[in-house]
Design brief:
Length: 434
């Protein structure tokens, strides 16, 4: 017999799960919220390092993101103003080049425009992925798109570096997802980056998720990973790794895509969804913080994938007369976040005299409860398997930024997906379908 029962069990306490749990309890439903980690937040993680609170996972939001902005306004949480960038470095054709932000933009913008030229054509209505038949484009990889431009070595590296923050494997990532991202920002890749990579929350992502959790009446159970989920035809039974069984009228599964293969789902999901789960998404990147001696000139740096252990870097904060630089590595295996000398050597590719005092990061690839970073879908999954996964699987509803319909890969997408799952379940409970 089950150890406990409720209206809805929510599995995963990242932004999707916490949002779904909060919304369902506000509708009057009893909710048990299960989380494998000893904290909430999922792939967002605010923790102390260098003597201050830092973001080790997802960080950036924007006022154009409706779900995020509604919650920030509701809880009176402001955004932090980013530092202005004074110098840009880029590794291209074997040399490091530098210039002002304007000079860099004038060089890279025409290349970016070519790469994303068909974004609005492919996704004229980004909220409806079926508005255009994208069967052909869904076969194209990022690498295939880059090859098709027939660029010089310099231009190819320049464009590669501009994309590299969001790339782990040009051969495994589908171009459709990047085109969708651009389409959500009117086809302008620079505008998309503005929404996705510049504006942190004052007080960190933990401040926001704690505010949402504070409105919830869900029974939160940390350190409770799940091993199985079964829809037996009349209810859902969730089994934890410790053997506890929880019966509910419905369930929200808000786990990262790359961890779902560790959970037995009965009845099994449709074959395209099962294939997506089994193959996982390819993102295995790293985010590393470096504390640098002195208040150095604010800079950005870019390197093509595979040509420097750190592919992008940006001065993010001032702290106790030093500078904090956020670094992204396209391949987490290429650099250890705890290797101060290795991080320093990678940064000295761009700034030869930079002095790294200490470094920090979280291993999202090795983390049992993430097994990778944000999702970038393999060819075909964005418009085929992911939409199928968003449909109710009997009494089981999937949610999360990895399968979000519009804000895929980000905090906004996670909240969008969690809120949508909660609405669907509330409607099903109200009319007796669950």
């Amino acid at each position: 017999m089950p150890n406990s029962a409720c209206d809805v069990v929510v599995i995963g306490a990242g932004f999707a799960g916490v949002t779904a749990a909060r919304d369902l309890t506000l509708e009057g439903h009893s909710v048990i919220l299960l989380e494998g980690r000893d904290r909430v937040g999922g792939r967002t993680f605010t923790s102390e390092v260098f003597g201050r609170q830092m973001e080790f996972g997802g960080t950036y939001v924007h006022w154009t993101q409706p779900n995020v902005w509604r919650e920030l306004q509701r809880h009176h949480i402001p955004l932090s103003l980013p530092l202005g960038i004074e110098r840009v470095y880029w590794l291209a054709d074997g040399m490091v080049h530098s210039g002002s932000q304007i000079e860099y933009d004038s060089a890279v913008s025409p290349l970016v425009a070519r790469f994303f030229a068909d974004a609005r054509t492919r996704f004229p209505l980004p909220v409806d992925l079926s508005a255009v038949d994208n069967t052909a484009i869904e076969k194209e990889t990022l690498g295939g798109r880059l090859d098709s431009l027939n660029l010089s070595a310099y231009d190819r590296d320049l464009l590669d570096g501009a994309l590299s923050t969001l790339v782990h494997s040009y051969s495994e990532q589908g171009v459709a997802q990047m085109l969708l991202w651009a389409a959500t920002a009117f086809g302008d890749w620079g505008a998309f980056l503005e929404t996705a990579g510049f504006w942190p929350i004052k007080g960190g992502t933990k401040r926001l998720i704690d505010a949402i959790l504070g409105e919830s009446k869900a029974d939160l159970r940390l350190s409770t990973p799940v091993s199985a989920i079964e829809d037996d035809g009349s209810s859902v039974v969730v089994t934890t790794r410790s053997g506890e069984r929880i019966r509910a009228r419905s369930a929200v599964v808000a786990l990262p895509l790359n961890t779902l293969g560790d959970v037995a789902i009965t009845p099994d999901v449709a074959q395209p969804v099962r294939t997506m789960i089994d193959h996982k998404h390819p993102m295995k990147t790293a985010k590393i913080w470096a504390r640098v001696r002195g208040e150095i000139e604010p800079f950005c740096a870019f390197a093509p994938v595979g040509k420097n252990p750190v592919n992008t870097a940006r001065v993010e904060h001032r702290h106790e007369d030093d500078t904090l630089v956020v670094c992204f590595a396209s391949d987490a295996s290429a650099i250890d976040a705890e290797d101060r000398e290795g991080v320093q050597a990678a940064l000295r590719t761009f700034v030869p005299d930079i002095d790294v005092l200490e470094t920090a990061g979280h291993d999202w690839v090795g983390d049992d409860f993430s097994q990778g970073t944000w999702a970038h879908h393999r060819p075909g999954n964005l418009t085929q398997a992911a939409p199928q996964m968003r449909e109710p699987h009997g009494r089981i509803h999937f949610a999360g930024g990895d399968i979000a319909p519009l804000g895929v890969g980000g905090i906004e997408g996670a909240m969008e997906s969690g809120a949508g799952a909660a609405r669907n379940i509330a409607a099903a409970l109200a009319d007796g379908r669950h």
